[in-house]
User: Fold these one by one.
Assistant:
Number 1:
Amino acid sequence: MLLIEGGRVIDPKSRRDETGSLLLSDGKVKEFLPGDPPKGFAGEVIHAGGKWVVPGLIDMHVHLREPGYEWKEDIRSGTAAAAGGGFTSVACMANTKPVNDHPEITRHILEKARRDGAANVFPVAAVTLGLEGKEMVNFSELAEAGAVAFSDDGKPVASPLLMRRALEYARPFGFLILVHPEDHDLAEGGSAHEGWTAQKLGIPGIPAVAEEVAIARDILLARQTGGRLHLQHISTRMGVDLLRMAKRAGLNVTGETAPQYFTLTDAALEGYDTNAKMNPPLRDEDDRMAILEGIQDGTIDAVACDHAPHEEYVKRCEFVAAANGIIGLQSSLALTLALLAGGKVAPARVVDLLSAAPARILSLKGKGSLAPGADADVTVIDPDREWTFGPEEILSKSRNSPFLGWKFRGRAVATICGGSVRHSTLPGVSSHA
Amino acid sequence: MEWRRRHVLGLYDFRPEEIEFVVDTARSMEEVLTRDIKKVPALRGKTVVNLFFEASTRTRTSFEMAGKRLSADVVNFSSSTSSITKGETLLDTARNIEAMKPSVIVIRHAASGAPHFLSRHVSCSIVNAGDGANEHPTQGLLDLYTILKAKGSVAGRKIAIVGDILHSRVVRSDLHSLGKMGAKLWLCGPATLLPREMGRTGATLTCDIREAVKDADVVIMLRIQLERQKTAYFPSLREYSRMYGLNRSVFSLAKEDAVIMHPGPINRGIELSDDLADCGNSLVLRQVESGVAVRMAILYLLAGGSHAAH
């Protein structure tokens, strides 16, 4: 039994935003007790006065690098970073080595996660064998093994025909396909957003249209097939517009963005900073504004950080040679909380973006909610805590972040997974596995 | 003016007075080149390493000549294998060379920003001899120097640069060297090789070579990389030459005393007609001459003299 008392409980799925206490028992949410905390409670207590108590955060787009790239990250370190950043669940992409295109790999990831994980791990399997874009994986076997969705993230399915078939085949089973929208031909050879900064620095560009063409294509294929489509890390204005249009047309399409795309622009590349290199690339200010608008009007459903750990030396090199991607699990919440400033979004919307929406999109049972009977995954957030994202904070094996040294306001002070505390900076609260 | 730079990575952050200072220094260097004994002891005991990861004969030779005229020991290190795919190699190579205590590393590399990257990791001076599509600062300076010698001034003059603007590091340095001295710059090329963002530099963009060349004081033709055609930036070399090559008929639109420049090597008959390349208005060989003087100036400012930074 664990009582989280006196906090502001924000649970958009139950339409709750009020002060009270939350009682957890046997790995589940037992009940919400409004008003003053109950007196004489015998079990463990977390005092959450002045804090937010929200359903455990879910990042639906991370790379845990295990199996195959354990020097960058593994399930233990990746989930530790997740818990440190307030995330109780992560969905990990399939570009491991071997690729997660076989039930054995899916089961292996889940087993490791059960043993080493500080957070729940939901594997996303590949759409095509070996991410090669040639043959479909065995969807049903993988789903039975525990894959929650399918994605060729990083190496998007180039063939429109194969994409059509995948969406069409998956439809009757309700399988969700996540796409990294990028037209390989249009993007080829590029290392940065095709715009003024790339021109100035002489870096080959990745045009916005490389993302937009792919988004348009896959939305049209979803329309044709009725398949379930989710757009990953949307970074462009027209990308947001296309998703908005698809939703208005009643299509079963959702989308996510990452904090870097509403926080930074390609100006961060000045000086050839390889920690600002990622794919999709940081875009321009107009795109950034469009991402914010998409979050505000609900076009963009979820925020996911695309946590992509890399060892130092693949970033310590010439810009065009550097690896793509940044770590994000420990900065994602703070960067999303920054949207509260100026009333751009409400607290409940932040919780929706980072918990309820990903649970809904991935159909994660018992997640993303604090209703009685839901899993006892809870994040306690101090929205006013000021802190600096220094290297000593990093729980990931890698340090590739453009946000190192940034001063943040707001952080997760306790991460509770299945009723046990996995990370806490609250005095007197210790974490245990 | 006091020279405070340790590296010459690009002209993007050069102030106009710094550019003038280099030009003035190059003038005194050129005087050395007119002497019977074309050598001064300014860099005696200093070592200059030419670290070239891309094939280049004239730039490397020019730097080598410049170093030797100043009595520096010049070592050439060429690697045809691009290190783009193995980033650590570049840093390792540079650190190995640095361990041999050179004063200056002159680097040419296919990756934009490679010299900037090295400058953060080594203690000697770095001179950018061309990095990807970013900059070629000594080319920008020698182009300015050549025009100043021929025309006396650049301020207010119409200078057209024609060709593959997208991939050209020469353009990105000329925009600074000529632009900061007040030239009216026109950039011209096929639309696929003329990024619209370049308009933000203040240059005028056009896809019509006649418009670019009309009343120009200087026409700088860029080398078209023959392999670009394979990636379909334009239909064929024949079409390119017809639309964007400089010939007598187009050049007649320029000012009477207009001059032609080209960073070399020239694809004769493609971007520049054979007769124009060798005509009296062509400054191509003067550019090569200026190159040695300008590079002497840069090496001297970085590694020798009372203004040297270290």
Number 2:
Amino acid sequence: MNKCTERIFNGLVKENPTFVLMLGMCPTLAVTTSATNGIGMGLSTTAVLVMSNMLISMLRKIIPDSVRMPAFIVVVASFVTIVDFLLEGFVPGLYDSLGLYIPLIVVNCIILGRAESYASKNPVLPSVFDGLGMGLGFTVGLTCIGIVRELIGSGMIFGHQVLPDSYVPVTIFILAPGAFFVLACLVALQNKIKNNLARKGKKVPEAAGCGAGCAACGNRAACGGHMLTSETDKKDKE
Amino acid sequence: MNENYKVSASPHIRDRIKSSNIMLMVVIALLPATIFGIWNFRHENAWILVVVTTASAVLAEYIYEKLMHKPITINDFSAVVTGLLLALNLPPTLPWWMGVLGAVFAIVVVKQLFGGLGQNFMNPALAARCFLLISFTSDMTYFVYDGVTGATPLAELKAGEAVNTMDMLIGNIRGTIGETSVVAIMIGAMFLLLMGVIDLTIPASYLISFVVFITIFGGHGLDAQYITAHLCGGGLMLGAWFMATDYVTSPITTKGRIVYGVCIGLLTGLFRLFGGSAEGVSYAIIISNLLVPLIEKVTLPKPFGKGGEK
């Protein structure tokens, strides 16, 4: 598979930031009250992710290792500020409903995580596609959660009434607890599908896009050394 | 070697009492309140909601366990207790399908997803009540008695109006199906106390701390009428005797139970006096349910001979 399409597939399916890596939970839970909010948040994050991955990849030979975190933050914050102003100028409605969570994209751990584990070690083009894949994976995740919550919580999808008027909305789904219910159910569903695929003997997309070099990886704390354990599992089986 | 000298892992003492016996006794103890509620709200056809909610709790447990290939545990009556308790906590005019939704939520999400009976971290019936309260606020706070809509006595009390304490004691007032009659609830509670199913620790510490809180912050001082109205109003009695004492979600040690009871008492008082709505028993109990693991950690008894002076 081509390196670039591989990166997009990796972000969308194998290492989907929402359903597999469980990163960026704060915006995931907070802004997905409607499908529109979910897609808006996802695309804003995608834009920042692609741009920051590109710039950090370009600068990867220049940024000294000891100050790389502040440098990444400055790069990410600049792009977030741009996105913030663009949204405020062109889609004020969405800007109002996303509110504080747009500036908070700066501290979204997906962005810093990709900068640290991918963009700072790889050439520009794969980094851009890595950012694109991760961003789209995030967008798909948020939109799915948003659709389910909006449908159950208010009977609408993307602001259009789809359920009959006699439907009584279950308001809890557009409140905070609903976010946890829906996220948990969708993660369970996606694990179920993957398990079924595995049982049928098909090749399961495994989260190994980071190269699985856990022992030397700076992001081990973030992913909890997940690969490390699965590596040892494999060795045990062998 | 003689059989008697073999040492096995605990438990060493076994009893004939099983979960199903205890649950059956709780069901029997709930019957006075249930029957009174059904009679009290006969014009609202409360019996339909009670039957549908209880049946769907049992059915939800059966279907979930069937689908997940687990042993079927509907014979231990715990689902009946959950469904019945939930029904008693619902206003009589609630659409029946909301009762079904609440029962399914209680059994599947709160109880079974966490491992079934004995593993739930929160009282399933109360969690479901809060789920319904948040989801369908207007239906859940719509109270009718004898065809007349209005506020519950507790809400009138909060608004500073006079209430009839005698009516609140007997139960011919507005409210949820099972909470109105203090007398009927107390008959059931006495039965549980006499049978040794529950002990006084939790209800007593709950009610005493609640009275103390109300006396200090209620603005009426030691006004017997005001305090009695608070004690008889809302779900306080039902909560104190039947839901705070749930085995699974309350602490084991006596010390822990006192701390737990005081927690619920203070939270109930806080929610009733300073909260947005008139009632706060269900939130107080489920929040205290969440504190139980911490309480257990603090009140862990020391083994004999340990923990002396260093």
